[in-house]
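Hey all, sorry for the wall of text incoming. These are the three entities for the joint prediction.
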Amino acid sequence: MGYLRRHKRGQAEAQFNWIFVLIVGGVIMLFFTAIVLKQRSTSEQKLSATVISDLEAIFTGASISKGTVHALDVPRVDLDFDCSRFYLGQVNKPIGKQVLFAPSKVQGTNILTWTLEWNTPYKVNNFLYITSEEVRYIFIYDNPDSDILTLINESIPEEMNAEFYEFDNDMEAITSAITDQNNYKVRLIFIGEFGERPRNIELRFEDAKYFPDQLSDMPGDDLTALFIKPHSSIDSINNLYFYDSDGTTFKKINDTYSLDHISSNSIGEAPPSLFGAIFTDDAHEYNCIMKKAFERLDWVSEIYLDKAEKLKSHYDVDYPKLICEKNVANAYIASPGESGPVGIEAIKDGADTCSQNFPEIDCVSQIAGAAEALETLNSRLLLFSCALIY
Amino acid sequence: MEIMGLAIVVILMAVAMLFVVGKMINRPQSDTRESYLDQEMAANMLNSLLKTSTDDDCRGADFTELFQDCAVNYPIGTIRCEPDSIPSCQYLRDRINNTILKNTTMRWQIPHRIVAWIEDKEDEPILELTYLDCSPDQIYISYDHLEAKLSPIPTSIGTLNIEFDICS
Amino acid sequence: MKKKSQIQMGENIAIIFIFILLVVGALVFYSRVQRADFEVKHEEDQDKEFVQISQKMSFLPEIRCSQENVPIENCIDLTKLDKFTDMVATSQGYLYYENDLKTSTITLEQIFPDTGDKWLLYNNTGDKSSSVPAYIPISIFNPKEGSLGEYYLGVLIVGVWRD
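and here's what came out:
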């Protein structure tokens, strides 16, 4: 009987032992699984932080070197951009006052960076452009000799995924021939009037013939369009119209301007703010970024205004040279009969307004006009061997 | 039995820890800042020096003109500089060593060398100033690395090469 | 029998106890390694930040020299300096440049001609305690001297503040 009792107890004990083993083993496994999962999430965040920090350093370096194109080989990234920050997963970094144009999302293993100098007429800032080889840019134009097209064609980086189509009286033939190449973003840029009536021409682009049917499945903000129309009286200003897709046509979202002072010394230079509109697929972001550029122009102009005053005083008192004094004064002092600010003062005034109210044509045209006049003046200073404003 | 298993686990952990610690000790230090500074120092010092004006000392001549004059009219030079109407070669030696380098690279204890020679006459430099024994011969002896910036200047007797080296 | 099973039980508990000790030891070691890794990464990030600040300062259009809008490398325009320092000293200017120049102190000193002139271009210690200054030779251009202006030799002293 005792034997039987001991045997039964032994069996019960063996079962309890296994239960004990299962529980403890389970707890240990859960513990390590939790550690692994936590570690994985931390590693992902760490990797994102490292990549974003390296990208920030690259962007800073790229923004300093004018006119250079860099093709960066990176691990497959999914970067999001807005006016103030850029994001990689859960990590983000501020862009701050840097003027950076990019599509709302930059995906891929090959990121392109490009910089252009924005001058009005003195150097204000480097504009930094970021895109991916997986973003497709389709340029459709009606006049191969147009100035805008020539400027774009001659300066666009080769590394960009860009295609050019000439309009030959049949827009539908062009747009229907645009095939789906599996790009996550496609941007159409229309340059010209394509035989449309000029009045409210920007609304014509909402017609179905301007829409690439084969890309109709793309989400509204991944298939976008830009219509560029030169301003009627000022060469350095273009009217810009931004469109999103609704699956069957383009819908106008917003209109704005580009301002690119065309220096007589540098004919054929790429128009920085126009390219900004090409790279940025959202009008609100474009306007926000341009406001940063105008804010910078305001600060830089204040310094040049002070420099002009110092030079005027120098040519008046320290080193009298009337011709220099007169020309330097013209850079910011209105002549008798003139009203309103002139020269650098006008640029500063316009920049101050644009930094808050852009897009507003008055401040843009004020800057454009004053920049043109100041450039002429600076050349005169050089001619008379005076110290230059810039 | 279990104790044997535990012993193996302990041994494995000890080996892993040793490996990790070894890797941490041998990890190269970040030299981003140092290499950036060395490059900037060498390039900027020479570029800035050559553009610098002597103001009223040598009637507005800059250091490039003084170097050219010294090279062509070595060993004295024809341009006279204040104070005391000293010739360009002496002015260069004095000002570069006793004012410029003394208040910059010497003050910061940075080993450096500045040397100027006419093309093909490297053995007969018109100027050579060294600090803390910085020279190409000392690389892998006293120093690991030499950052050099060379500026060629045209003269009537050939190209004058001016080199500024930073040793680290 | 009782004693044997008690011994067995004791052994099991001892083994589990040692196992837990090993796990805790491994976790502590791992967290120390992570911390050391983090400190190295932090140091590298601070070095990168220093390089970025130095580059931004050297290329700032507000103080950079130019001739007919062609920028002159490694050069600061003397006629722009005073206004820049005045602007940065205002709260608006300070906030504007803080994002680019972060917690740093940037000074310009004229070396030759030795006038002893110094300009404090930017100062934001950000309640941090230490800074290792770096010295970058630079030209200072004075357009008011000579017929086409004169260059002086200066030094840009950049100190990035760290904890």
